[in-house]
Amino acid sequence: MLLHVIRRTAILVASLAVSSVVVFGFMVLLPGDPARVALGVNASEEAVAQLRAEFGLDQPLVVQYFSWVSGLVRFDLGRSYVSQVEIAPQILDRLQVTLWLVVCAMILAVVIAVPLGTLMAIRHRRPSGFVLTGLSQLGVAVPAFLAGILLITVFAVRLGWLPANGWTPPNEDPVQFLRQLVLPVLSLGLVQGAVLSRYVRSSILDVQREDYIRTARAKGLGPFRALWRHGSRNAAIPVVTVLALQLATLLIGAVVVERVFVIPGLGSLLLDQVSNRDLIFVQDIVMLLVFAVLLVNFLVDLLYLVIDPRLRAGHS
Amino acid sequence: MTAEPTQPTEAIEGTERVRGPGEVDAVPLVGQPHVRRRAGASLVVGGVLVAVVVLMALVSFVWTPHDPTLVNAEARLRDVGDPDYWLGTDKFGRDVFSQILVGARTTLFVGVVAVGVAGLIGVPLGIVSAMATGWLGETVMRAMDLLLAFPALLLAIMFSAIYGGSTLVAMIAIGIATIPIFARIVRSGALQVLSSEYILAARAAGRSPWAIGLRHVLPNVSSLVIVQASVAFAIAVLAEAALSFLGYGTPPPIPSWGRMLQESQELLYSAPRLAFIPGAAIALAVLGFNLLGDGLRDRYDPRLEDRR
Amino acid sequence: MSVNPADRAAAGSAAYGPMSAVGDERPVLDVRGLSVSIGGHDLLHDLTFSIRRGERVGLIGESGSGKSLTSLALLGLLPEGARVTGSARLAGVEHDVVGARDRELAQVRGNEVSMVFQEPMTALNPTMRVGAQVAETIVMHAGRGDRPEAGRGAVRERVATLLDQVGLPSTAEIARAYPHQLSGGQRQRVVLAIALANDPGLLVCDEPTTALDVTVQARVLDLIVRGVEARNSALLFITHDLSVVATVCERVLVMYGGRIVEAGPVSEVFTRPRHRYTEGLLAASDLEGADPLEPLETIPGSVPPAGMFPEGCVFRTRCAHATTECEVLPPWSGATPEHGYACVHPAGVDR
Lengths: 316, 308, 351
Prior knowledge:
The complex is a heterotrimer of chains A (about 325), B (about 300) and C (about 350).
Chain A: H1 2-28, H2 34-39, H3 45-54, H4 61-73, H5 87-122, H6 127-141, H7 144-158, H8 174-208, H9 211-219, H10 223-261, H11 266-276, H12 279-307
Helix pairs in contact in A: 1-12, 5-6, 5-8, 5-10, 6-8, 7-8, 7-10, 8-10, 9-10, 10-11, 10-12, 11-12
Chain B: H1 32-62, H2 96-131, H3 135-148, H4 152-163, H5 167-194, H6 197-204, H7 209-246, H8 257-264, H9 273-300
Helix pairs in contact in B: 1-2, 1-9, 2-3, 2-5, 2-7, 3-5, 4-5, 4-7, 5-7, 7-8, 7-9, 8-9
Chain C: H1 5-11, E1 29-38, E2 41-51, E3 56-60, H2 67-75, E4 82-90, H3 102-108, E5 113-116, H4 130-141, H5 152-165, H6 171-176, H7 184-196, E6 202-206, H8 214-231, E7 234-239, H9 242-248, E8 251-256, E9 259-265, H10 266-271, H11 276-285, E10 340-341
Parallel strand pairs in C: 3-7, 3-8, 5-6, 6-7
Antiparallel strand pairs in C: 1-2, 1-4, 8-9, 9-10
C-alpha cells in the first residue's frame, strides 16, 4: 500500500513538471515581445530594454523556465509585467472568491445528484424514472452560462428576488454576499448535479445487478437496506472518480460563470490577463488551475485506498 | 462543458468487476421489450434533433430570410412573430432566425473539425497504447490523463491568447482537448479485443501487429468510436458556445450562438427572448447529440441493456 | 467411486446417514400448483412437491428447465413483473410465500429458509469483512420468535463457531478478511455459514459447487450435508449434475420445460427411469457404459427457449417415442407428487 502511495506521489510530481513545461512552452509561443506588449507601442526602446532586463526576459529560455518554476515552488509568483504589482496576493484574493463558488457548487451538485441518481436508478423501469432521466439529460445539455442567464432572467429580472450580478466579500456584508452567491452557485451546481446524477444512477444500476446484493436479499434484507448497506460503498467508487474529473469542468465553468455574474474570481482574472497579454500572470494562473486539478485527482486516488479494500493489499 | 463521456465505468481504471467462471443467468432476460422501446426513443429523438441542426446549417448555405449580418436601425428589437422577422431582431436590427441558421453552420463546422481531429489522433493512439507492450502504453495513457487536466475551454483560451480568437483556433483547441476521450475508450475496447482468442490465433499465424491492428482491432472498436464521436460532438458544441460567449470564438460579424447569448445579456430586462432563442438552440443541439450517442450505444452494445 | 449415477444411486447415499426419523408430519416445504410467468412467457407450470424435515431432495434439470427460477420463487426473489400463482408454504411461517409482501418475506429469508447460490466469487460484498457479513444475518434475525437477542460478544462467538463448522481454520483471521483474500472454495463456505447461521428449516442450494474446482467440490458438498444433518434441516439441491444428486440426495425431482416430469427415490429413478427425458439424461451421463468407438449418447435437438415449450408433453419434440397421444398433457402416474412420472410412453413399462 505504501508503494501505491509513493507511486501516486511520483506520478503527481511528474505530471506537475510536465504540465509546467507545457504551460511555459505555450506562453513562449505568444507572438511579440512581452515587454513591448506590456508597455505599449509608444514606449521607448530603453524602457523596453530595461523592463526586459528587470524581468529576466533577456535570459535564455531554459533559465527563464527554471527561475519561474523555482519561484512557483517558493510561492513567489513574480510580478506582473504590466502593472508591476506582485502577482501572488492578487491571485490569492481572487482564489478565495472562486473557491467559494466552486466548493459550494460541488456540494450542491452532490446533494442533488445522490438522491436524484438513486431515485432514477430505483425507478428506472417505471415512468417516473424515465421522466427524471429525461430531465437529467436536459440538465446535461444546458451549459452553466446559459443556466446562469436563464436564472438571472427569472430570479433577478422578472422576480427581483436576487441580484443579477456583483460580489461582496462575506465579512463586509454577509447577507448581500449570500444573496449574490445563490445564482452563480445554482448555475454551476445544478448542471453539475445533473451530470453527476447520471453517473450515480448508472453506478447504482450496476451494483444492483451484482450477486452480493442478491445474497443480501437472500439473508432477509429488504431491497433498500440491501442496496444501502452493501451497495453504497461499492457504488461510490466510480462516482468519486467522476467527481474528480468533474472538478476540471467545474473550474472552467467557473471561468464563464464569473463573466456572466461579474464576479471577481480567478476565472475573470485569467480572462483579463489574457487580454492584457500579461504573460507571466497567465502562466501562473493556468499553472494554478492545472495544479488544483492534478492535486484533487491525486487525493481521490488516495481516497480509493480507504474505500476499496481490494486496493490495499498491493495492486489487484 | 457539461456533457459527459459515455460508459463511465469502462473508462475508469481500477473498477474491473470480478466474474466467476460459471456465470449462469438464473433468470431469463427480463424486461427486454421495455428496454428496446426506450433505447429506440433516445435514438429517434436524438436523431431528429441532430437532423434539424444539420438541416438548418445546410439550408443556411442556400437561403436565409435575411442577411444575418445586415444592420438595420429601423428594425431594431422586433418581437417574435413579426411578419418580416419570424424570430424577431436584435439590438442592431439583425434577423434572429437568420443568425440561428448560420450559427448552426458555425457550430457544426467546429464540431466536425474538432471531432475529426480528436478522432484521427485519438483512435490510433488508443490502439497503439493497447497493443504496445511495456512502458509505452502506460505513458500514453498518463499523457492522456494529463491532457484531461487541461479542459477544452482552457486550452482554447490559451490558444486564442496566442493566435487570436477565430473559428480555426477554436476547432483545433477543442479537438486537442477531446483526444483523451477517444484514446481512452479505444484503448479499453482494444484491450478487450486483443485478449480474445482469434487475436491469439492471428498472432500464432504470424500476422504482423500492424495487420492485426488494422484488420481486427479497428473494426471492432468502430462502434465504440461512433458512440464517442456523438458525445464528443456534444462537448464540442458546448465548448464552442462557451468560447464564443467569452469572445474568443468565431469573430463578429459571423453569427454564432454563443456570441448571440453574450450580446443578449445586457438586454435581459427588455428582451429576454434574445437569450432564450440561442440558448434553446445550444441546449437542443447538445441534447440531440447526447441522445444520439446514448441511442447508438444501446443499439451497438446490448450488454448495457439494463443501464438504460 | 464410479462416475455412473446409476451405480452411485444403487450404492445409495451410503456416505451419509439415512433420512432422519420422520417425526414431524407436516412438511417443511409444501408446494402446490406453483406457476410463474414473466413478460407473458409461462416459465413454470403447476409445480407440486413437498419436502419433509431432514429430507434431502434433488432437483435436476438443464439450463432452461426452470430449476433456478423455482428456487427464486421459493424465496420470493423473482424479478419485478413476474406473475406467480399457486402456493408454497413453509413450516413455521403463517403466510404463503406466494403473494406475500416483501416485508413479510424478508423476515423469513435467511431465517426459516436460506439459499446458497452458484457463483462464490461474486456472492460476497467486496468491501465488507467476511465476519461482518456472517454476523449481519445473525443480528438481523435476532430477537425474532424464539431466537435470543444477541450481544456483540455472543454474535462474535457464534460467527466463530459457524466458520469453524464449515471448515475454515483460524476463524479469527478469516473473520477479519475481505472476500478477495479468500479462494472460491473458502468463499462458498462462508456463504454456507451465512445460510446455516439461523438454523433454517429448509436450505436451498442452486448449483453450489459447479463453479468450484473438483477437489474442493467434494469437500463443500460434504459440508453442506453435514450442515443440514446437524440441524435436521431439509435440503433442496438444485443441479444438472446427476452424480452429485446421487451422492447427496435421497429423493429426486426431474424438471424439464418448467414442469416436473418425474419424481421418486434416487435409487429408483436413476436405475429404472420412466420418463423418456430422464432416460435420455441418464444415458448421456453414463460415460462408463459408453462404447469408446461409438458417439456419445445425446438427446437430439436442444432445449427450446423460455416459454416456447410445446403444448402437451413438454418433451415430445425431442422424444423418439412421441405419438399423437403426447399432444395432450400426460397425467401424473403416481398417487403422490413424490413418486411418479408424466409420460404416456414410459421406459421399462410394457404397454
